[in-house]
Amino acid sequence: MTFAVFDSHLHTPLCAHATGAPREYALAALNAGLQGLCFTDHMPMPAWYDAPWRMNLAELPQYIEEIQAVQAEFAGRLDVRLGLEADFHPGTEKFVEKILNLHDWDYVIGSVHYLGAWGFDNPEFIDEYANRDLDDLYRDYYALVEGAARSGLFDSLGHLDLPKKFGHLDPNGLYALHALDVVAERGLALDFNTAGWRKPVAQAYPAPDLVRAAAERGLPFVLGSDAHKPEEVGHRFTEAIKQIHDVGGRIVTYRGRARHG
Ligand SMILES: [Zn+2]
Ligand SMILES: [Zn+2]
Asked: Where would I find the PHP domain in this sequence (predicted)?
């Protein structure tokens, strides 16, 4: 590959649903031939929100120290960056802003994981899909994505079409295109997230037609495996790169919250 390939969506055991020490992710990145990686563990949120699946506020210094130790260990061999996967959930913006101001992060992904109180990507709560109208679900979901883009808090939008995870495909498509218009207008990038290939839907996020629509709007992509274990680092990146380049898309990385590439 003729450009630096980074995996910019990676978790650590601090979120309580990932395994493997951060240095094992770095070793996996070296083995996969990557030039760099950016850790983006699930950020602390208010205590009432999603507590079992993320680090708490008191653990944030440990996260920073652990990744800085990996940066030092791999200096000169691997470009190790430090970011966060943030959640967009209306009402929590001030809390999120405070966390984002606590450190000089390299990259912040904005993700929507909840519709109201329902964590719709959590396998424990799949049954709830049966109670929902899919058109309404996607309408509400993409309205939140647009809110995330407009909030000004994030560098990219995480796993754009996430509600398809278990196979519940978007019956409409127009809400997604409108959301892409807003994301483009606000100058964010898209997380090209290969985890979808490991889920029941067996499709990366975003879907191929949305990758094309995003490229047409000039939206850049940030490659991410969304690894929750070291062996997932760089998962199917060759295919991801080909898919993006085939539709004329650009691949970028972030450092100090500025876009590179
Ligand atoms: Zn996670
Ligand atoms: Zn996520």
From this structure: 7-195
Nearest ligand to the CA of 158 is 2
Number of independent structural domains in the chain: 1
Ligand with an atom nearest the CA of residue 159: 2
Domain-located, residue 172? yes
CATH number for position 177: 3.20.20.140
Q: How far is the CA of 2 from the centre of ligand 1 (A)?
A: 31
Distance 18 CA to ligand 1 centre (A): 7
pLDDT digits (tens, 9 = 90+) for 93-109: 999 999 999 999 999 99
Has residue 1 been placed in a domain? no
CB-based contacts of 233, cutoff 8 Å, min separation 6: 7, 10, 25, 28, 29, 32, 34, 37, 225, 227
Identify which ligand lies nearest to the alpha carbon of 53: 1
Helix, strand, coil share of the chain (percent; to 5): 45, 20, 40
* Ligand whose nearest atom lies closest to the CA of 41: 1
Distance 85 CA to ligand 2 centre (A): 7
Q: Which of 23, 28, 3, 2 is nearest to 12 (CA)?
A: 23
Gap between the Cα atoms of 187 and 142, Å rounded:
17
| CA distance linking residue 112 with residue 85, whole number of Å | 10
Q: How confident is the model at residue 2 (pLDDT cuts 50, 70, 90)?
A: low
- Summarised one tens digit per residue, pLDDT across range 36-85 is 999 999 999 999 999 999 999 999 999 999 999 999 999 999 999 999 99
Answer whether residue 12 is part of any domain: yes
Q: Which ligand is located closest to the Cα atom of residue 87?
A: 2
Residue 179 lies in a domain: yes
- CA dist 58 and 50 (Å) reads 16
| Strand pairing report for 36-42 and 6-10 | parallel
